Amino acid sequence: INVELNQCFSMVDFHNDAEGNDNSNLNDEYVSIKNGCDFTIDMSSWIIKDSATHTYTFSSYIINPQSTFTLYTGT
């Protein structure tokens, strides 16, 4: 397969400001990302970061073709 992996991913939903007090509503900040390619992708050890200093490192995760996952800033 000769596809750049960054061509597989698209952000399908994004909510960067939790309703009310952010500390009381931790899971109302999230991003949903879709694998638009026709093959599975092993995202183990991949890092997602925002424009500030927040990072999330996937310990072990495989996303299936045409599937979407949601990453929450809370729990």
Question: What is the secondary structure topology, with strand pairs?
Answer:
Layout: E1 9-15, E2 30-35, E3 41-42, E4 47-49, E5 55-57, E6 62-63, E7 68-72
Antiparallel strand pairs: 1-2, 2-7, 3-6, 4-5
Report on this model:
The chain is mainly β. It is built from no helices and 7 strands. The strands form 3 sheets. Strands 1-2-7 form a 3-stranded antiparallel beta sheet, with no helix packed on it. A two-stranded antiparallel sheet has the order 3-6. Strand 4 and strand 5 form a beta hairpin. It starts with 8 loop residues before the first strand and ends with a strand. The mean pLDDT is 88.
Gross geometry: elongated
Over the alpha carbons, how many angstroms does the gyration radius reach? Answer: 14 Å
Q: Which spans have pLDDT < 50 for at least 5 consecutive residues?
A: none
Tally the beta strands.
Answer: 7
